[in-house]
Request: fold
Amino acid sequence: MKATLYSTDTEQNRTEALAAAQKAIKEKKTIVLPTDTVYGIGADAFSPEAVTKLLSAKGRSRRMPPPVLIYSSSVLPGLADEVSADASALAEAFWPGALTIICYSQPSLNWDLGDTQGTVALRVPDDEVAIDVLRLTGPLAVSSANKTGRPAAVDAQEALDQLGDDVELILDAGSRALDGEGAEHTVPVASTIVDCTGEQAVVVREGAISLDALREVVPEIVTKAELESRSQLKDPQENHDEFSELDDDFLEPDESSDTPSYRQAPVPASGSLHERLVSESSPVSGIDQRRSLAQPVRSVRQPLDTTVTKPLSTAQAHSLVFDGAEDESSAN
Reply:
């Protein structure tokens, strides 16, 4: 059955599209949504069933776990553990935007994105439709909307052609292609990826945000090549080569490698936040994260709580991931 295409060109269409997307994610189905770079296939980050469907749709294995998109930098402490000062500064400066930050995952989450080895790649997209979706659904595992080996979709029709039989619906928010000389379109520049799991922040893929711009915020940041040349490559950054063959906007290491690019996460546990989030009877399912569609999002940068350095409890992580959105929606 072909995916349903939802336009977001008017307020009414957008409201209907967002409601359909929220329903599909709640039902552990996959959707295609626009981002500020390319279109992405998204699934509930806290549902192993949904993440498995995402990977299957793309033709990926668990060795190639997807990154997670969030609606605001304020969510970062709820999902990431041992957030460094560099990670906080970069998030504050460049989110929303084309910067992906690799951090350790909060142990209390016990989610299953694949063979992550306890890390997670996080980003806040600079796209109003994507932000609206994320406020309704919570964090989404998102990978580029394409089959393995094919170009990432830059518009809804390309996503439909590649993934129409594998996703529930596609949100159409226009083309993400840029005009290029001698070609019909060029793919937008991919996000820059920075690994903040070690003592020093390392750029593992240069992209839309330049190294010079990063160094204005974190002067000590280095590239993978610079780190290797200085013979400073230490755990847990010894596997940066895994990130060298990225072919789209999302974090997808080389599947042929024998070494996972992430630290192994603990298995899902009874009573964990993961279990609460995916449970149909959980109080979390009743939280209303909607916001006014008229509210601007591109200029909003919420401050980070840089004091959070220790693993959070399930209740604390839950509060950071969801309660802020609930409060905002009720105020609108």
User: Anything to note?
Assistant: The mean pLDDT is 75.
